[in-house]
Amino acid sequence: MASILVLNGPNLNLLGTRQPEIYGSVTLAMVEAACTDHAAKLGLEVACLQSNHEGALIDAVHDAKSRHQGIILNAGAYTHTSIALMDALISVEIPAVEVHLSNIYAREEFRHASYISKAVLGQVCGFGAQGYLLALDALAAHLKSAGAA
Ligand code: DQA
User: Fold this and answer.
1) 101: domain range?
2) 35-71 pLDDT per residue, tens
3) N or C: which end of the chain has fewer CB within 10 A?
4) Structurally, how many domains does the chain consist of?
């Protein structure tokens, strides 16, 4: 069974209480449980990880090389700053989908640029927690068409 790493970056551990008018009232634990349920319906396994540290996120991407066939990544604010995380994703050559709860293009200008987008199959943003499930659908279809799931 193909395995997907659901990786969340800085401040996403605060989901549910962090600016709920922007990010919603769903907690990270709820997002991760929904991903696990949805993945099972798609015949996939998920492993979930969150870190507030750029290096830990990079290590998780490196470790994914031997463990996972796909990555769903919400890199939080590192989306807009981290060339290192982009390089890590490009280096491991694992199909990845970028997720943002909010529509980053409808917000401040500094959120419009994503280094992560240069290293992923595609991006889902603006659909709240549902975005993670849409990303799983996209990865499942991609892995199936690539003969990897
Ligand atoms: C975010 C958008 C980022 O700009 C922000 O820094 C986050 C969350 C989102 O999910 O909408 O931390 O990635």
Assistant:
1) 3-145
2) 999 999 999 999 999 999 999 999 999 999 999 999 9
3) N
4) 1
